[in-house]
Each structure stands twice: as structure tokens, then as C-alpha cells.
TrEMBL record:
Pfam families reported in the protein's UniProt record: Pterin_4a
Tree of life domain: Eukaryota
Enzyme Commission number(s) of this protein: 4.2.1.96
Catalytic activity: (4aS,6R)-4a-hydroxy-L-erythro-5,6,7,8-tetrahydrobiopterin = (6R)-L-erythro-6,7-dihydrobiopterin + H2O
InterPro entries in the record: PCD_sf (IPR036428), Pterin_deHydtase (IPR001533)
Coiled coil start-end: none
Keywords: Lyase
Similarity field: Belongs to the pterin-4-alpha-carbinolamine dehydratase family.
Protein name: 4a-hydroxytetrahydrobiopterin dehydratase
Enzyme kind, highest EC tier: lyase
GO biological process: tetrahydrobiopterin biosynthetic process
GO MF annotation, one: 4-alpha-hydroxytetrahydrobiopterin dehydratase activity
Organism: Spizellomyces punctatus (strain DAOM BR117)
Amino acid sequence: MSRDLTHTRLWVSSFSPSLHLAMIRLVASLPKRTLLQPTMSTMSVRTTTSSTQNAPLPVTPLTVKERTEHLSVLQGWKLVNDGKRDTIQKSFRFEDFNEAFGFMTRVAMQAEKMDHHPEWFNVYNKVDITLSTHDCSGLSIRDVELARVIDRQVGKERPESVV
Ligand SMILES: C[C@H](O)[C@H](O)[C@H]1CNC2=NC(N)=NC(=O)C2=N1
């Protein structure tokens, strides 16, 4: 037990029994949320948020102008309509399976936090990624944000090349 806690216990046990009881009643009367539940500022928020603000990113489709602007900044992501919806796609190659899977693991953890997930295909050292937003059957800012997150995970091992 830390010295501080020992000190607190001694201090509390020196209270009169009635004061002690009053304190217990006060604590018991506090709403449970105050005592037990994490506040929004302490819990991890299961929504996709931009790095600069905490509001969830919208799932509305990007306009043609917005899409063009974002794609001009993203490196190597190609706009592909797969016949059903617009997507952005990129292929990554790594030294070996271990590095490819390490990359996928890091991306998976970030994607889960963002509640926005990649569609991907992996064979040995190759990872093909497709991003699209189911909720709008097309591209939203969430795909752009996930593409940025994915690109940041590359290079933490040595990718042989990016196709
Ligand atoms: C219920 C849950 O929040 C939604 O289904 C999320 C999960 N992950 C998702 N991932 C992707 N890529 N698109 C979505 O629209 C999406 N929606």
C-alpha cells in the first residue's frame, strides 16, 4: 500500500462514527455514473473521428469536387468503380508474409477503433485493399481518413514496393 493511501486510511478512521456514516451515505447517494462509469472524455469513442476534432466523420458520399481534391493528396490510391459502387484501391507488397501480416494487424486495430474497416485480400507478401462506405454505397470522408491511417502503417516494416 502506498504511503499516501495509508495516510488517507488513518485520517478517515480518525473521524467520528457518525461522520464516517454520513460520508458513506453521501457516497452511496451519488449517481452511479459519477463513481463507476467512464465519462465521454475517458472512454474510447467507437466512432470514426478526424485527428483534429472529436465529432464522428459523416458517411455521406463525397462530392466529385471533394473526391478529386482528396485523391490528389492521397498517394497511390486509385478510384475504381467495381460495378456496384465507387471505391478506392491500393496494393502493397512486403518482404514476406510476416511483414504483410504485421501491417494488416496494425491496420486492423486502427480500423476497429475508427469503426471503419478495409476489404482486403492477402497472399503471402501481397495485400490488396479496397475502401468504400457501405452506409452510402460509395466513398465518404471515412475512406479518405482510413486510407491516410493505412499509409501511415507502411514503412514500419520495409515494404519491397508499393504497386
Ligand atoms: C455498424 C457499423 O458501425 C457499420 O457497419 C460500419 C462498420 N465498418 C464499416 N466499414 C466500411 N468500410 N464501411 C462502412 O460503412 C462501415 N460501417
